[in-house]
Amino acid sequence: MAMLEVNNLSKSFDKLEVLKDISFNVEKGEVVAVIGPSGSGKSTMLRCVNQLEKADGGTIKVCGTDMLVKNSSGKTVYTDTKTLRDIRLKTGLVFQNFNLFPHMSVLRNITEAPVCVLKQDKKKAKENAMELLKKMGLESKASAYPCELSGGQQQRVSIARALALSPEILFFDEPTSALDPELTGEILKVIKELAAEGMTMVIVTHEMAFARDVADKVIFMENGYIVEMGAPEQLFGEDASERVKQFLQRFNS
Amino acid sequence: MTSEQIRTLASLMLEYIPPTLKLFGFTLLYSIPLGMIVALLKMCRFKPISWLTNLYILIMRGTPLLLQIIVVYYSVPILRMNEKCPAGLKSLLDRVEIRDSYMFRMILVAFVLNYAAYFAEIFRGGIEAIPKGQHEAAGALGFSKLQTFFRIILPQVFKRVIPASSNEIITLVKDTSLAYAMGYMEIMYIAKKQMSLYSSLVPLFLAGLFYFIAATLLTLLFAFIEKKLSYYK
């Protein structure tokens, strides 16, 4: 079953078209890496799917639920507020800058949404959060505040925070771009583990080696278009288009 | 003045501290929540509301508090007598009873309206200073707009506005002395009266000492609160 279906998605900021005719699917358990030069629209695409930007045209279906549709008069409209909120709970998003809540402890950062949004029992939410922290190797940091953690630790907390809502699909918006190479490794390891567990993920990244290793499908974007899409062997192999080769060359040198 | 006289004077003046603190306390009690509402109205996306709020803030910050106190205080009796006063407003004004507490209530209204404007600007600055990412992260986790505001944004705003608010609150302690102009019996009122009685500056010195101590205590209190909140950045 397709967890995410995006068709003909378009988006403009004023007169600048940042997304043009974007279409792709993400199947259950699939890991999709989105690569491409800066300003190609990768992040905007992710933000449209996560309702942080309003798309102008096209359709989006998340876990079989219509989020963005064309109505009978051909206008692009969002579904009702309640459904949009339900969709948000099925998706998780990890930001480049972590965006942890600075005034809450690590534990509270993770339990706040399950308790307030899902109305989970506090004790149960705490147990679940401790489990996630253990998985991230951060059990000892439960009562620390985000400002006391390294960037890599903060990002692992933010992954735990997203996982606490048991999302069906997890999005990463350049999760390692604010980290140094050593800390980047920490995060990539966590994502690899999630992939091994069968988590459906869409990752916007500049880590080419990682994309090749982990992704089932790679999307190359440029100027708001999907230039090429396929298995990593295809994009990183000899058959790739000239543009993709040229782009990747800079990372290999 | 003899030391005996000063002692009598000091104990007399102590009795005027509660009315001063009453005006101070009630002004804070009403102007802080009102300031938050005004801040939100100013950020309202419906432009006419934002403009009106802005006009209110401009007037409150652009004219003297003393003038505002006098206007509010005399507005009821003067407008009541005015024949051109619209019937609706007149019947509203007729409902205001001019009894013992009238003076305090009118002065309080003027103080609250004035301070709410200043607090509104402080709060707006605080709310707008919270990074966009906080709203986005909360939204992505499924928090509603209201939950995001009260659970994520407001606690962080609170910390950010402490320094600017402490400034306003310390100014307010001293501004309560303006109520003296209406004959409200607070510290300044009794100090001025006793000054004439004794032909001495000591009452004014004592009044000054009161304001100084109050301002110092508030400074210490806010330093303490800031330290308490320094567990996160």
Element string of chain B (H = helix, E = strand): HHHHHHHHHH
- Most extensive contact: A-B, 28 and 21 residues
Give the CATH level 1 class of chain B. Mainly Alpha
How many strands of chain B? 0
In quaternary terms, these chains amount to heterodimer
Topology:
The complex is a heterodimer of chains A (253) and B (233).
Chain A: E1 2-13, E2 16-27, E3 31-35, H1 42-49, E4 57-62, E5 65-70, E6 76-78, H2 81-90, E7 91-94, H3 106-116, H4 122-135, H5 151-163, E8 169-173, H6 181-196, E9 200-204, H7 208-214, E10 217-222, E11 225-230, H8 232-235, H9 242-252
Parallel strand pairs in A: 3-9, 3-10, 7-8, 8-9
Antiparallel strand pairs in A: 1-2, 1-4, 4-5, 5-6, 10-11
Chain B: H1 3-14, H2 17-42, H3 47-62, H4 65-81, H5 87-94, H6 102-128, H7 132-140, H8 145-175, H9 187-198, H10 202-228
Notes on the structure:
- The complex is a heterodimer of chains A (253) and B (233).
- By secondary structure, chain A is an alpha/beta fold.
- Chain A has a domain at 102-166.
- Chain A is 37% helix and 28% strand.
- Chain A is built from nine helices and eleven strands.
- The longest helix of chain A has 16 residues, at 181-196.
- The radius of gyration of chain A is 18 Å and the shape is globular.
- Chain B has one domain: MetI-like (MetI-like fold), CATH 1.10.3720.10.
- Chain B is flat and about 70 Å long.
- The A-B interface holds A 50-52, 85, 88-89, 91-93, 95, 97, 99-103, 112-113, 116-118, 145-147, 158, 161-162, 165 and B 131, 133-134, 136-144, 147, 151-152, 155-156, 159, 231-233.
